[in-house]
Design brief:
- By secondary structure, the protein is α/β, with parallel strands linked by helices.
- The protein has 11 helices and 8 strands.
- An 8-stranded mixed sheet has the order 1-2-4-3-5-6-7-8, with helices on both faces.
- Helix 2 packs across helix 3 and helix 5 packs across helix 7.
- It is globular, with a radius of gyration of 17 Å.
């Protein structure tokens, strides 16, 4: 059931399985929404409390005026945890959600227990590429980028065998508020954890996709080397590895939680 947390002039949509402690917060990718975690909720919801939410402008959440910073997105997570009375939590984030996890582990280590970072990087893309995407959305809207972005979400074989899921992802992308999308793009553009990643002390799982062109496996390998207590799993997937390979993703995540 969708619930809402009132922020400063906008509402954050979230749901909470209210399962056994400890809580894990699930943080979705840019251009997706919290429904991308459906399979993980099915697999783990009876074993652990799972909290997931929609980023600014995504899904059912409102969109405050941009630009945003990664600190803003991290503060959204802290506000949600505070609202739900969760002092310390496990965290699982993918793509942009993974960078939110990096920010939390670096800046709020008192709140983060175990950390899962999927298909992300200490630095994602270039300033020029993000500025170009922002300009395209400002000029032409979400339709102008939806096809190209969703093509990078999934490997070619998976797209061909799951046309309904691909169309669902495309519809989700098109429904995103351009204001929120642009703000989140700016947050990723300006985020850089290449110096601070080595300060992370949470036990960490890195998950990559062998066919991921947005954040290639080398990005997760770099983080696995930089973070002292980190493990690495590479799946036969593209960018949204938890959707494309839910069993492999769930197995890796279960290993982290069992530790």
């Amino acid at each position: 059931m969708t619930e809402y947390l009132e922020r400063q002039g906008w509402a954050m949509a979230y749901d909470d399985t209210a399962g056994p402690a400890p809580a894990m917060i699930l943080c979705h990718a840019l251009g997706a929404d919290r429904a991308m975690w459906d399979r993980q909720v099915e697999m783990l919801g009876s074993r652990q409390r799972l909290i997931r939410f929609d980023h600014r402008g995504h899904g059912e959440s409102g969109a405050p005026p941009p630009p945003y910073t990664m600190a803003d997105l991290g503060d959204d997570v802290i506000a949600l945890a505070d609202h739900l009375g969760v002092e310390r939590f496990d965290f699982c984030g993918i793509s942009m959600g993974g960078q939110v996890g990096l920010w939390l582990a670096v800046n709020r280590p008192d709140r983060v227990r175990r950390l899962a970072l999927a298909n992300t990087g200490a630095k994602i893309g270039t300033e020029e590429a993000w500025d170009e995407r922002i300009a395209t959305v400002e000029r032409d809207g979400m339709d102008a980028i939806a096809d190209a972005v969703v093509e990078r979400f999934f490997s070619e074989d998976w797209r061909e065998s799951h046309p309904g899921e691909v169309e669902k992802a495309r519809d989700t992308m098109r429904d995103i508020d351009p204001v929120g999308y642009i703000g989140c793009c700016a947050a990723i553009r300006d985020a850089d954890f290449r110096v601070t990643a080595s300060s992370i002390r949470s036990r960490t799982l890195l998950v990559g996709g062998r066919h991921d062109v947005s954040t290639p496996p080398e990005a997760q390998e770099w983080l696995a080397d930089a973070i002292p207590d980190a493990e690495l799993a590479i799946l036969d997937a593209a960018h949204l590895s938890n959707v494309e390979r839910p069993d492999g993703f769930g197995s890796a995540l279960s290993g982290l939680l069992a530790g």
